[in-house]
Design a protein that fits this description.
The protein is of the alpha/beta class and about 575 residues long. It has 21 helices and 26 strands. It folds into 5 domains: about 100 residues, Helix Hairpins, CATH 1.10.287; about 120 residues, 3-Layer(aba) Sandwich (Rossmann fold), CATH 3.40.50; about 100 residues, Alpha-Beta Plaits; about 110 residues, Rossmann fold (3-Layer(aba) Sandwich), CATH 3.40.50.720; about 80 residues, Alpha-Beta Plaits (2-Layer Sandwich), CATH 3.30.70. A 6-stranded parallel beta sheet has the order 3-2-1-4-5-6, with helices on both faces. Strands 16-15-14-17-18-19 form a 6-stranded parallel beta sheet, sandwiched between helices. It is elongated.
Amino acid sequence: MQGAQGDKKVTLKSFMQEFRNYLFRDRLSFYVQLLAIQVIVYTVILHYSIPYLEGVELSWSQSALFVLQTMTTVGYDLLTFFPVNNTITVILIIVIMCTGVFTFLMIIPAVLTPYIQEVFKPLPPSRLHENLKDHVIVAGYNEISKSLVDSLLVSQLDIVLVEEDEKKGLDALNYYKKNKKSVKVILGNYNENATWTGVGVSDARDIIICEWEKKSATILLGIRNRTRATITAIVDDLSYERYLKYAGADHVISPKDFTGKVLARHISLTPEVDILFQASVRNGEKRISEDKKNPLKFIYLTVTGECPVIGKTLDELSLFETYGVDPVFIMDKGNFHERGGGDIKIQRSTTLFLLGRSDALSRLVGNMVSCSPKKERLAVISGFGDLGRVVYSELKDAGIQSYVIDPKAEEPYVIKGYAQEESVLIDAHINEAEVCVAAVNDDEVNIFTTLIARNLNHSIHILARANKPGSVEKLYRAGADYVTLLPTTSGQIAAGIVLHNIVSVLLDLPGNKKVIMKKSSVEGGVTAGWCENASGAKIIAVEGKEDAAIRPSPDQEVRPGDCIIAFGDVQSLRKLISILSGGKK
């Protein structure tokens, strides 16, 4: 009995939900149908009830006319139809009038609202309303351009984002409304000269195209002869590089090559060290350090294998006290922790961001992070597109055996099939593998592959790619140890090209925070503490011509020519860059 009642409640709930969905989708159709039903029902009621109530015969046409005139409140002479003497007739007329007016009032907005919204919606302008020079033009609004613009906001550059799709343009306008002074969104057809004239293409310093290869080629051919700007094209398939350069691109970049190397780095036989900043040599400029052979470095180090630091916290390791190395950040399963996150235990694939002198970093790696590699290691790679090929090539060079899963590839070492199928993963020796790389160009496939791989091999190390920001957390929940977001990588590489003469973005952090390096032009009398208080950014190192300070004190003097490494959000870093550039104090 209770089950039957429960079924009725579920059925009623489902019906009401379907009814609400129907109203939302087909509101106009519903109200028109309701009006038609009301006219028919009231016509029938009047035709049969008026002879009884008022003693007057009405034809079907007279009944329908009476109902329509009553519902629309256009007015009529009652004597034209019949004298009203019965109270029930009066009540009936009032009911017809009220329900009719209500239905008509519902139909009118349903008809007019789409047109009113079309006329009054706040579309982006079709051209700039001010003359800009040395600005940056970004063509296309997508996840790549969002990452790019977010990185560029750390500078004082004016940014113009051009989009030809109306919906995307409106989305961009809403997304950047808090930064509308720095980011101007323009809606225009890429193939029309007026669009590029309207965004000042001839006076731009950099142009970044974030569109598909064919559309990028069309844009390049249309603007190359109209500007002296440096043009960068971000592409999905790097095999189109030579064609796009022939069309006029100065740089053609694809995130897949870089991302493939990053994924392979996490599988390497030994902990991998990448230099984010080296004080002695930067962009070809030689610097005089306290010791040319012992420069200041900012590195990131990925813990792998059975390293002795696994299971320990940074508080336990006391890196700064022992080696003079500052563990500025630690990243574990996509989560960043500032200043080391002292109580966070280091796991396999944990990434440490360390700042220190070259010899101190070498001693740290040698004493605490080095581990004995296994003689044989096995990896499974899901997907053999551009990214999967880079990963396979990097692992082959490192001497790591790999099984590749792909439904179309013809290479002899490829297992044909889909990695989201359990039997295919078993054929690829997933139970024996130490690493699985989910590199398919489909987030849902990578998520499901991660789930199955984790279920089949609880100790396996899983690395995955993601195309959408929302997929990153899902991949970690599914069991991935490390996830790389492709659009973010593209945007950061392109931003580095634009900003190389202004500021070096060393690291992008969650929450739109960044680590930057800026050469100071500010005159004497300024200290690190004053710069922090004035900007809100945190200075983590000051490297001068004769010395360098890690974790500088508030009294540390900042002199012209010093290199400052700092982190913070976009607004605080913009203020710091302005100060270090000799702006207002």
